[in-house]
């Protein structure tokens, strides 16, 4: 039976790479798919991976109707065996409903890829609706890592390396942005709660206030004769 499958994960965990891999595997078996995306880092009408892979896609802007588009596509004698939707977190709830209808009425598999929560750890509307409607939710097994080495579970928005928690929910950016620009960083829950990015951790490590005691007192204790120590 056709399915609506939601592949979720943090930024930098390979969602777009997997989308491109699914497209490759199915197209090499003679199947034809329709690829949609929204606000990809490579620009309008593109599905791209940080590994450098990119393909053309249909841009699903505000008000775009997936069901109507696919019905028109098929009615004109064109073929579609499956649907891939990247950056699905940016879609509206009603657009996710349209994707579910594509599965149920047109009997096409729909593979949606997206981030579950935003930089404030709040659900994106599109992701929330996907969790509610999807036949399956798959958490990607390629783990993105926090700067501390723990599994990254949260997305942080940064400016100049500092985490920010105010602003619009959707601001297009990427990891490893130049200083001063809006960027993103993946963090474990602990460091997201503490707003401690890699840059903040590095600054803290260089701070003279890291040690909880005066280093000179330690020197005095080491140089004091053993007989005088308590």
Automatic annotation (TrEMBL):
Compartmental location: Cytoplasm
Domain of life the protein comes from: Bacteria
Assembly and interaction partners: Homotetramer.
Main location (coarse class): cytoplasm
Gene: tdk
Record's catalysed reaction(s): thymidine + ATP = dTMP + ADP + H(+)
Keyword Transferase (UniProt): yes
Residues given in the record as ATP binding sites: 9-16, 86-89
Protein name as catalogued: Thymidine kinase
The UniProt record lists the keyword Lyase: no
Polar residues bias locations: 216-230
Region (Disordered): 210-230
Pfam families (UniProt xref): TK (PF00265)
Active site as annotated: 87
GO MF annotations, alphabetized: kinase activity
Species, as recorded: Streptomyces chryseus
